[in-house]
Amino acid sequence: MTVIGDLGTEIEGAPKGLHVAPRTVEDVALVLKEATASGTPVRVWGGGTRQRFGYQPPDGIVLSTRHFAEVEAWEPDDLTMVVGAGAHVDEVEEMLAGKGQTAVLPERSGPGSIGGAIATGTSSLRRARLYSLRDRVLEVTLVTGDGRVVRSGGRVVKNVSGFDIHKAAVGAFGSLGVVVSVCFKLWPVPEASATIRLDDPADARLVERPLAVLETPHGTDLFLWGTAPEIEQVAASISGTAQAGLYWPDDPEGSFQWSLRIPPALVADGLSRIGNWRYLALHGVGEIRLGSDNIEGAVDLRIWAEHQGGALVLTDHPDDQPPVDPWGSLPATADLQRKLIHEFDPARIINRNRLPGGM
Amino acid sequence: MTAIADFKRLLGPDRVLDDPLERHIYGKDASLMRGPAACVVFPSDADEVAEVIRIAKRHSLPVVARGAGTGLTAGASPITGGVVVAMTAMNDIQLDVANQSAWVGPGVINLDLSHKAKPFGLHFAPDPSSQSACTIGGNVANNSGGPHCLAEGSTTSHVLGLEFVSADGDIFEVGGPAPDPIGIDIRSLIVGSEGTLGLVTRVLVRLLPLPSDVRTLLLDFRSVADAAKTVSDVIAAGLVPAALEMMDQRMTQAVENWLHAGLPVDAAAILLAEVVGSSPAVESEAAVIESIGKSNGARSVLIAADEAERSLLWKGRKSAFGAVAQLAPDYYLHDTVVPRTRLVETMTGVYAIADRLGLTMLNVFHAGDGNLHPLIAFDSSDPEVMERVRRAGDEIVALCLANGGALSGEHGIGVEKRDLMSSSFSEVDLDAQARLKDVFDPTHLLNPAKVLPSGSRCFDFGGARLAIPDGAWI
Lengths: 359, 474
Prior knowledge:
By secondary structure, chain A is α+β, with helices and mostly antiparallel strands. Chain A has helices at residues 25-38, 89-97, 114-120, 127-130, 133-136, 165-168, 228-237, 267-271, 298-307, 334-344, and strands at 17-20, 42-45, 60-64, 71-75, 80-84, 101-102, 137-143, 149-153, 178-185, 187-188, 192-198, 212-216, 219-226, 240-244, 256-261, 278-282, 287-292, 311-316. Chain A is built from ten helices and 18 strands. Chain B is of the alpha+beta class. A seven-stranded antiparallel beta sheet of chain B has the order 15-12-14-13-18-20-16, with helices on both faces.
């Protein structure tokens, strides 16, 4: 038997099965080729923070990306960083902050990994100004189910060479391959920032291109960054309680976590339909993160969201399998998506079932 | 019945062009490569596009989508023949001001969209230099950029959803006004696919609020290196201006000869910087840029006093390619990207290539992105010059790749750079791209022989290399 990485090593929190932690891309390819040959399902494990998002894959191999935690290349002046999928989001952002930069990754990710953010397509709360995760990804290297190492994109901030497989990998739950490294388009962090709890939430409309406008049951916060004179002047022009720095809220409490995705103009309407669920609304984006203690009301909310061209997605829950369909109605391109996945994971071993319709 | 007769029955004789002159006109885009168009059709909606595709499929006729034909890589040239599907009649704009977006037809001209959105305080961010002519469909096909993509990203970041017709003639809508469509993001694959995966028939674009204030600065430098250092220092200071454009001396002279805008023709390089936002933001940011420029040896910093002055500066930048006509009747415009820190050495190398081959080269480019646009001015009536122009192009691309760059920043691959894809991607990478193409278009009906080199799908993992006959892609 070939020993691959830390074969049989225990991955904390992971379900039973063969736990492997390959150390090289070649070893990832070897594991996946073998798994494809034997039809063994492979669950990819980063920080383990979003494993109950989507349908659950069957038991089989659990493949940890923890040995892909290195920064492969970081050129601050080029605004690019290539980092392994197993690196922790928060640690990467902390490192970047040391040189006044950010990769615009999701805030407060805990032990969440780069690969996990990519697989689940989780964006920063700053996306109204700095765009979503797929917009920050310049290059991805992934290993397909049958063990091919495929690179898409490039390590420059602007590139139109070929099909953007690297962008399609965002939110694909590994179905196009196990992501091993990612090149991000970095952004410089300006000299000043502030968080303002608004006395009147409508004042948010007076501010041009804020970094974020986030509403929780506690109030509406305006997040600003820019030059010091700019921040001072904006802060003086609206009434509220200002603090220097950016204070990001946690996701709402609740054993069930949801992402309500609707056209941005409908956020207020959406908030009027959630009953006593806790919420974090991203104004200008159209996402409301929700926390609840049960699934009551979810069906009606989903029907409404889908009617508006959106979705209600269950992103976390306390059970082994989601108590309701985590995704809702299948996209019209489901058949096309299946064919596409087949070309990248012909035995459908990687994170099987997790996508809509159990793809 | 012939395909042309079928098209005429579907669309009527007025919306099908098949006389030799018209076929000749539509035989190429703004590139140098031409193909034999069988006919040109002008559908008005997705249903008609679907029927056009079905007819073409029945007659095994390649389908080549075309917007305004401003593309520079032969993406819209029917190089293997076929029907050219002109999207220009599909030019409806449905603004959704509340959601800061608009559903637009692929034939809508880029600048027309921003004009239509302006009364509502909105605009479309991607602004290629050809924006007064190029279409949104073409922007989507090529994932186009433009000077203002430095801060806001290329077209892909501004496409929220789209409708496309597949190679089977099925109509799909992907994405939409709500964020993060579930499942695989097909939208991201269609954008930038140059009409090879499907024909885009409607686009839901993001519109951004118009900035309330703007400052446009012109800095002039004694060396390209000083200008490049200024770009780096501005970004290191935590600023991403709306645009950071550089023009070299030859280009500045050509533009000034024609425009008389008072550009400093003795400067080695000029830098056009623009900051947008609230008044306090632009005032403080303009001050930072001015100060950094001066500390890097800028001889002067001009701040446009009003909209007229600003428009004049931008006219100089965006009309630069036209100004070249005074030097030579033809030009070949390149598009490559390098990491910004390699800008100066790449520029030096690019000039050396032109000098060695005895060619006139001018440069105007998106310095903030490291996106170079070396332009070779020449006279195509000289039979021997074309070979040198082509050789220079190959050498420039090779140099940029050697410096860690990419084949194209915003113009696309088309035919021009198709065969260079293998210098940027491995056999396995290209095979994955080819598999993707096959999922969408197994018979290669849609814009065949574009983007991917012939024989890309030849990698049989773990087995023998499959023999694919030459031209199988075509």
